[in-house]
Amino acid sequence: MGLKRCLACGDQFRSVPQVPAQAYCSQAACQRERRKLWQRGKRRTDKDYRDNQARAQQKWLDVHPGYWQRYRTEHPAYAQRNRELQRGRNAARAETSIAKMGVSTPLSPLPSGTYRLTRELTDEIAKMDAWIVKITLLSGT
Fold first, then answer.
1. CB 28 within 8 Å of CB 35
2. pLDDT tens by residue, 76-115
């Protein structure tokens, strides 16, 4: 086969005849990049694959409780970098607010009545199972 340019490193390589659509050279870093991109696309498009991956990860975490807490304690540079990146993401969304799970402080208490809760789809950040909703009074008492 002819020479091709690797999509990961940009170097030229000779593809093997068994893989006519080969786009990555055989270097370990380029093969990791190829697998990473394949897995990302698979998780995005295949619900079963995504569910299986989530179950496998949860099973691993069940066998290794407290792993991430220990990792952050033992690698303070990682934890600091993560905090800085999160601050940057929050700053990029400065015009929106961040909703945290279980936090609700109404500006004024709502009177008794029947309400409709409608989920509002916004660019605001909501953690875990928090929803941003619009409350519409249907009938008061």
1. no
2. 999 999 999 999 988 888 766 666 666 666 666 777 788 8
The tally of domains found in the chain comes to 2
Tokens matching residue 128: 């875990």
Query: What is the C-alpha radius of gyration for the chain, rounded to an integer number of angstroms?
Result: 24
Helix 76-92 / helix 67-74 crossing angle, nearest 10 deg: 100
Q: Angle 9-13-16 (CA atoms, 0-180°, nearest 5)?
A: 125
Asked whether residue 65 is domain-assigned, the answer is: no
Q: How far apart are CA 102 and CA 32, in angstroms?
A: 40
Q: Is residue 129 part of a domain?
A: yes
Question: Which structural domain, as residue segments, surrounds residue 117?
Answer: 98-140
Looking at per-residue confidence, does 8 or 135 come out higher? 8
Find the Cα–Cα–Cα–Cα dihedral 50, 53, 59, 60, rounded to 10°.
-140
Strand partners, 98: 125
Q: Are 11 and 24 in contact (CB under 8 A)?
A: no
Asked if residue 19 lies in contact with residue 34, where contact means CB atoms within 8 angstroms, the answer is no
